[in-house]
Amino acid sequence: MEQQFLTIWDLVLTPLYLLALVFIAIRYRDNKYPPGHPLRKYYLPGLYSKIGGAIFIGLLYAFYYKGGDTFNYFRHAQIINSALGDSIDRWLKLILHYSPDQSPEIYKYTSQLYWYDSPSEYMVAVITALLSILTFNTYLPTALLFAAISFTGIWAMYKTFAQLYPKNTASLAIAFLFIPSTVVWGSGIFKDTICMFGVGWITHATFRLFINKDFSVRNIFLIILSFILVAKIKLYILLAFLPALAMWLLLTYSKKIERPAMRWLTNAFFILLTVVGSVFFMQRFADELNKYSLEKITQTAKVTQDWTSLAAGEEGSVYNIGEISDDPASLIALFPKAVVVTFFRPFPWEAKKIIMVLSMIEALAFIYFTLQMFFNRKSKPVRTLIQDPNILFCLVFALIFGFAVGVSSGNFGTLSRYKIPCLPFYGAMLAIMLGEKKEGAENSPNKSSRRQYQPAI
After folding, report:
1. Cα-trace Rg, the chain
2. For the segment 212-228, what is each residue's pLDDT rounded down to a tens digit?
3. Peptide bond into 346 cis (omega under 30)
4. In this structure, are residues 181 and 55 in contact, taking their beta carbons and an 8 Å threshold?
5. Residues near 189 by Cβ (< 8 Å), separated by ≥ 6?
6. What is the pLDDT confidence band of residue 94, given thresholds at 50, 70 and 90?
7. Which of 9, 227, 291, 396 could disulfide-link to 300, CB 3.0 to 4.6 Å?
8. Both ends of the chain: CA-CA distance in Å?
């Protein structure tokens, strides 16, 4: 008998939850972004795109893929919540991940939860279970809640950069809110949806805390919560994100140094300190990092590449950027190809599936705007990059993370999903750089095209 992923209750409840979310969003927008506010016009469209992405990917997995991770998470959530029929105590033990050896009464549930011993997957199942209580254990309404919660993090990150660069709000909105891959893969019941929430709030709250000196309990709580979620679900995101974040903060503070020579030396020291600190972190916590430690990272990349290539079979989505050996130097040699495959591929002739067309269009757009940034006579990307720690932060994270997923994914289908955390940052870098070029063209040649960035959030 074919498994039924969506029920009549999805059809009945989804419009009701949709109306409720839109009502709440309109009230929030009118309260925080009154008429005339430059961000007002992007708030609802950004939320609608996330909601549309959640519904689209749910229907795609239900009727095209006939199942997948998103429904596996939801099935686990249903099993967890079924314990409520017996006792709240058993449900809480499942939520808190008690061992069935110490609590044998939960064995009848854990025996059905094949992700119970997989911490990252089970974390997503637990979050799904908590949210699905509010939706009467119905898939699509739960997916809508995932999308809305994730949107809060993405919006916080967009708001941070939009207020740093108020003349680039439109292009930054495209980068953070409307890139198709991030909308589709970062909106449903997935690991990526939660991680995008976490990355967004870490970025926003860290800037508020360390740059704006806003030492509120709210910011501290958001940083801790987001850090825990991302670390539990996809630790490798933090391995790329934290060095870039540290460099961002350090270089921002160094801008206060007035003497250029001293500022350059300080920046060089900060960059070296960040690199050394990252290496020390990976060595010091090798046991906790497990497969992401320095000693195992090449092995992890090779195994992941081999597995995804085998899983893709002959479906036409496989790519090969070169062999990965046990020598870490082999990864460094593949850096340019890995970055290219993440941001600029698939090329049109490589998009052999309809589902890959979106990725192909994105890649062409990234190619176009990247070339525009480098080859326009009025653009000075290297100079702008060095002078602006915000742009450097975006680029460093995008390159590190883009390299990591590009070298290890092995096929475009997997890559299109894994790469979404770095796409908004690369898009934001392009938006700011091209915005700088446009602003410079509008100013007098005898005047500096640089703005004084106001970090008020």
Report:
1. 23
2. 888 899 999 999 999 99
3. yes
4. no
5. 58, 70, 73, 74, 124, 128, 139, 142, 143, 146
6. very high
7. 291
8. 55
